[in-house]
Each structure stands twice: as C-alpha cells, then as structure tokens.
Amino acid sequence: MRVILSLAMVALVSGVASSAASADPPPHPLRGLYAIWANPKLLDLPFVEGGQVMVQWQDLEPAEGQYDFSRLDAKLKSLHARNKPATVQVNGNRKPTYLFAKVPYCRQRISAQVSDQRGALQYWHPAHMRAYINFLAAYGKHLKESPYRASILGVRLNFNGLGTEHLWIKKDQRDLRMWIVPPGVAPGPYWTPALAEAYKLAVIKAFMKNFRPEIRVFVRNNISRDLDDDRGLAEQFKTGKLCLFHTSSEVQPRSKGVERQYLMFLKYCRPGKTLGYAESWTDAGGRHGDKLDRRWCSPCQWNYWRVLVDLNCGVSFIGCYGSDLARAGDPEFRAAFQFAAKYAGCHASPSVAPGAWVALREGDYLKGDYTFLMQRFSGDASVAFKNAGPADQRYGAWARKLPPGKTMRFALNDAFAQSLAGKRATVRIVWLPTKDTVWQVACSGRTFTAPPSASGRWQVTEFVLPQAAFSRDSHGAHLTLVAKTDVILHMVGIERRSEERTRNANHTVLTPLQVTGGDRSHCLKQGPPEP
After folding, report:
1. Domain 47-220 grouped into CATH 3.20.20.80
2. Of 160, 155, 128, whose CA–CA distance to 57 is shortest?
C-alpha cells in the first residue's frame, strides 16, 4: 500500500525544484487521477491516486465567528486512513445563515450556482467581504494544524461570491431596488466590475496570507481576461508559489473565451513552472447536475480525448467524475484512465517520462495536435477529420489521413531522446486499417513496415528498438512515417520499453529479424487478449 509522504518530503517535492539526478524536475509524487463526486469504493481503483474533500461554507460557520470544521475533518480523516491525498474546497453555494441578517440579498435567480432558497447575497458588501476574509483566516489556521495535513494536496481558491465562482451581475440585476436590505443594515453600493475585481483581489491575498507556504493554493485559471493580465500574479505562477486549476476540461475548449483558461495551463504548467489540477466540465455522457450537454462523439472517445487535452496542457492532477470511473469495467474507459495515470505530471520531466507522443487532430479550439514531449512537423499533406472508425473504440473522435507517397515527420524532445540512448524502446502507432493499408516508419536507423490489415478497427502496432539511438535526419526529424496507401492515424509515439505489457486483439508488436542488406523484414508477435 502506498503511504502518503511525510510533511518534510511533501515540502521537498511540492514545487518544481530540480532533481539531483537530472536537469529536469522530478514528477510530483502525488500526480495522477483524482476521483471527484465519487463513491468512496472507486478510490480503490489501481489508477486512482486521490480524492476530493468538499464542504459548504454554511456548514463550517454555524454562527458569526464560530467555526466548526468537524465535517471537513471527517472527510479528510477518511481519505487519510485510505492513504489517499485530496484537494480541499469550501464551496459557497450555501452561505452562513447569519449573513442574511447582515448583507442585502436578492431572491431572483442571480446564478445557477446559488442553491440557498433565501437567494443570493450581495457579496461585494463590506459585511460579506469581512466575513469571508475572517473565515479564510480560521480555515487556513485549521488546515495548517490538522493531523491530516500530509493528505492535503492543496486547497482550491474559491471566491464564493455568487455560489462558488460566479461574480458577474447582469445589468438588469444591478438595480439596488431588487435587493432586500435587512433592518439596520446599510445598503450596499451599486455593483460594478471594479467592485468585483476588488473583491477578487482581496480573496486572493487572503488565501496567500493564510495558507502558504504550508498548504498549496490552486487558483482558478479564469482569473485573467488575457494571458498578460494576471493581476500581478505572474511571478507567483512562474515560481510555483501559486498553482492553477479549472473545472472546464473537455475534449477541446467550448469557446474562445474558455480557451484562454487552457492557455494559462500551457503558459505556466506545461513548462513546469507551476502545478496544474483539472476536472471535467461534465462526465463523459454530458451530465452535470440536472443538465445534459450534447456530445458529438461517443462517451469512451470523449473520456479519452478529455484526458489527452489535460496531458497536453501539462496537468499533473486529473479529476475524474465518479460516473466515469464507475465505467472502468469497459476496457476503453479503463485503458484511457491507465494511460492518463501513466503520463500525468511527467510533461516537464523528459529524462524519466514513460514516453512521448502526438495525438493527431486539428480541432475548432486549441487547434492542432495534442502533444507530449514530441512534435509533428507542420506542412505535411495530411487531412484532419472527425469521427473515424467505430464509436466503441476510444481513439476516433479526431484523426488525420495521410495520402499515398506522402510523409509525416516527428521530432522528440531532445532530453527524452537522449535518455533512451542505448536502451530498449518502442515505436507505437495507432492507426485505422482500410482495405490493404501499407505504411512504413523510419526511426533510430531502422525501417519498419506494418503488416497488412483490413479489419476496419483501430490497431495498435509497436516496433521494438533493442538499443535506441535517436538522431535527427536531414529534415531534422527523429521519426518519419511514409504512407504507401491512404493511412488513417490517431497517435504516433515512442515509449520506454517495459517487459510487462497488456495486449488485446488489436495490439501487435513487431521486432526486426537478423537480415543482411538494407531490407528490414519483420516477424509478427501478438499477445493474448486483454482480460
């Protein structure tokens, strides 16, 4: 059983300090998948690293200035007993009862995140701001002194204005006549964006003051209207003193505005400057609460590509809905979770990363391939499209087709390539056979030809490199794929070779025969079906 690291060890590895053994930082030891909104039994899945602690502000402050953290402690204790770390969040969907006698409120539905039947509080009112800042001081002190502190991955910085994260008041809701003013309470000022900004900054400063350095703080990555407008916090993210999170992960951003959140991950997390946590907007079927979002690809594809985008963005901690983890009996869901757990957090650690890959796509937002320590050269003749192959396989939400006689070229991260020198490695290609598809791969001084197949189902074909020796060709590429016929591709990658590998009926491994001359023939090895 894995034991959660001691506080001293957690402090040592919680940032992005350099490893003594390599020039790149080590992966965070608690990287991986985190179960959210999940049955506790799902924490026992072998690829689930940790969980989630969520409580309402209302439940922790039963009276003004009186704090009762017993509900939070009970949840932390349960996870601690299972050796599972967790993020901790105090949500503001339900606010302390006493605030409705001290702060103006509106009975209209200001935000879908407000679940209190009495309505929404005027969060920018001085009494509300003072109450929340005071609460954060008690909350931070309690976590620092908690006997379960070693189980706390970090806290989410919730603004808890309207509900948990919303702060915007629509024009038709700003009229002060809409707001009920309790007896003896001074009316609040007319809402403006500047007041929302002042509230937001006050909350950020309170978290920084009351939790760090003992408790890691994850800041919601929509705090910036653009990448250069991060309210003076850039240095905090650049040095790993503040971390980032969002709850908006999907197969791709759903709008240009949401795309900016993903770009914050790309700016600060992928280079290893700070740590990132992400959870899905919805489950793979589109369900979140009482809502159902439409999906243009199958649930197993949505689940898979959603974790790929997180890996592409440099996310170390991937939050997965319990309703998705409950489908781990489906091999397509399980394989996606295993893949994510394997790679999460290794994006800035090429010397020890398990592999490098490119998932081929174009997309509507966050355009281009999703990549991990490997890049495809631009300008090839491939064409991107959606919904390739059977819906019951996870790969085909996007793909690229390469026409006959054309090539795709790929370059590895140099540190990753160097770390494999002289070691066993595997070229891994995920492709969709149609008719008599023929293609070749040139890599590490060898040329490999894929066996013919016309199954109409996605195949995983691997070529073993007994002693990798990666060097760039005249085009600057480490790997070149040549299409002899039309070939539809999902992923091209290089993995460190492991002797224990899971196989299924669509997974083949080819190893070079001892031959003379330039010809490279191959024998076929196929493993047993996946259990």
Report:
1. yes
2. 160
